[in-house]
Amino acid sequence: MNGSRPKIAAFAISNVIPDATAIMTANVQGIAPGYLGLYGGVDLIRDPYTKAGSGALVLTGLVTADFTVPRGLQTRILTGIV
Fold first, then answer.
1. Range 43-53 burial, b when 16+ CB lie within 10 A, else e
2. Alpha-carbon torsion 6, 74, 13, 22, what sign?
3. Quick check: pTM over 0.85?
């Protein structure tokens, strides 16, 4: 390497996965690469005002959840997939 340091890729933080991209993970020694925590159930919100002019009722469902990746080394982002 002629005394030069290898380049380390910067971390990318995003909630968008671009086209031609995949996420590859592994289950190592029984430990999952990520955990999804759901709190409570589905909250249903009744909105009689948004479309009141047309007489319609709008219902919105919300779920509270958290996702964590305790072992990020088990996850790889694959790009350039055709």
1. eeeeeeeeeee
2. positive
3. no
**Nearest one of 44, 77, 79 to 59, comparing CA atoms:** 44
Per-residue pLDDT tens for 23-68?
888 888 888 888 889 888 889 999 888 888 898 889 999 999 998 8
And the tokens for 28?
A: 């190592």
Amino acid at 55: G
Distance CA 19, CA 62 (A): 27
- What whole-number distance in Å separates Cα of residue 19 and Cα of residue 27? 25
